[in-house]
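Good morning C.,

I know you're traveling, so I'll keep this short. The sequence:
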Amino acid sequence: MFKLRNSKEFGEIEKGIIDTGAPISVIPLQMWEDADIKIIGKDKLRGIIPNEKCRLTVDVGKTKCVLTDIFGNVSSEIEILAFLAHTNKIPLLIGMKRILEKGKMWLDTPKKLGYIEI
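The tokens, ready to paste straight into the viewer:
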């Protein structure tokens, strides 16, 4: 689970998808529109489909977040680089850069269990 920093504190807990194939996290609009973000550019994302209609226009920004778990453990504050979507029609994707690369990940796929140790 994931929380972004706004101007005073960390926002609501949001569930996301851990995407080990994504270098940078992708954050839906409703999560980042009130967050403390420094926009540093614009970009377009696309997956394996080369069709122009499948591209997602995003801002690129720096922000701070923490990771939490179901037991109430909270990571230290992490500064991240993220793609900031202009829509809520996408899930929160937690990518490798500056988040997952900082820790160890353990998965038990048959039991659908896992954790990240930072």
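Safe travels,
E.
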